[in-house]
Amino acid sequence: MLKFLLWLILLVIAWPLALVALILYPLVWLLTLPFRIVGISVSAVLGLFKALITLPARVLRGPKEFRSD
Questions:
Q1: pTM of the predicted model, to two decimals?
Q2: I want to staple 18 with a disulfide (CB 3.0 to 4.6 A). Which of 3, 11, 32, 47 is the partner?
C-alpha cells in the first residue's frame, strides 16, 4: 500500500517518471528473480548442513521431557 501511495505522489509530481517506473518495475522484478531463487537454494543447503552437523549433539542429548509448569 505504501508503494502505491508513493507512486501516486510521483504521478502527481512527475507523471512521465511515474509511467516509466510503472513499465520498468515488472522487468526489474523478472531480472532479480533468479537471484532470489539462488538465495533460497543456498539458505536451504546451509540449513541442511547445519542440521547434519548438529545431529550427533541432538541425538546424544536425548528426548525432551514434557513438563507441566
A1: 0.58
A2: 11
